[in-house]
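F.,

This is the one I mentioned.
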């Protein structure tokens, strides 16, 4: 039975299912493989934590040893960008903590295959009871399965990014009418052109550190009352939100 950690880290549920399916498929299609684990991490918006799925709790623990020490086939494979194979851990002393833990559960051979896609890093870890049993694993079905899973995760990531962009565009479209209405009020009260009105709204957004849509909504609700005072309010003045620290320029929120 496949074991996944209680905390799976950021990201959608389908990613966890992909990892689970990949680990199970490797055990199914590689007779010499007694178990498998998969880790996923990286990405600009993600924490340093790595999501893990394994076909047995002992193998999840072996992954944990490597992540805790920062030493083992996972780190070696991800750093080198190529497969890392240990033919017989009884005679391979490269990773002392991992080696001791692996031998403690009867694992003698390992093969780790890294895959980098769309800013994320996926590592597939194969384990064998017999020395030398995973020597050719890096070029067999596991490599194809890992590449397919990594490509699927990359597609998911692009899909999420596209959905986020669509959401931002929809939000901008919803707020645009009220911004245009507020600009019309500013043009009337201040007797100015459209460019000057929008510039005044943006300046008020900057000085009060509020979203432009919120500034516009307040002007529309007030129907232009006290508008001159609102637009002339200095940064840090009465009723104004404190500006950003260290003299940094204020942000404009739409």
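My design for it:
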């Amino acid at each position: 039975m496949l074991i996944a950690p209680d905390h799976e880290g950021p990201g959608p549920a389908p990613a966890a299912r992909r990892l689970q399916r990949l680990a199970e498929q490797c055990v199914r299609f590689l007779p010499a493989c007694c178990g498998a684990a998969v880790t996923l991490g990286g990405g600009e918006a993600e924490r340093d934590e790595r999501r893990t799925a394994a076909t047995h709790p002992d193998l999840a623990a072996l992954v944990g040893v490597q992540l805790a020490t920062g030493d083992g086939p996972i780190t070696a494979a991800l750093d080198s960008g190529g497969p890392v194979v240990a033919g017989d851990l009884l005679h391979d002393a490269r990773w002392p903590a991992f080696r001791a833990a692996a031998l403690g559960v009867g694992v003698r051979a390992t093969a780790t295959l890294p895959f980098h896609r769309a800013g994320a890093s996926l590592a597939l870890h194969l384990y064998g009871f017999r020395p030398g049993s995973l020597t050719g694993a890096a070029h067999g079905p596991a490599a194809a399965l890992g590449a397919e899973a990594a490509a699927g995760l990359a597609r998911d990531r692009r899909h999420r990014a596209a959905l986020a962009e669509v959401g931002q565009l929809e939000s901008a479209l919803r707020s645009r009418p009220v911004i245009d209405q507020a600009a019309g009020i500013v043009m009337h009260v201040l007797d100015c052109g459209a460019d000057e009105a929008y510039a005044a709204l943006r300046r008020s957004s900057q000085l009060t550190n509020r979203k432009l849509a919120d500034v516009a909504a307040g002007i529309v609700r007030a129907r232009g009352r006290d508008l001159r005072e609102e637009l002339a309010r200095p940064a840090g003045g009465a009723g104004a939100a404190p500006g950003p620290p260290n003299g940094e320029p204020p942000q404009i929120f739409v």
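Residues 1-13, 43-48, 235-254 have pLDDT under 50 and may be disordered.

Talk soon.
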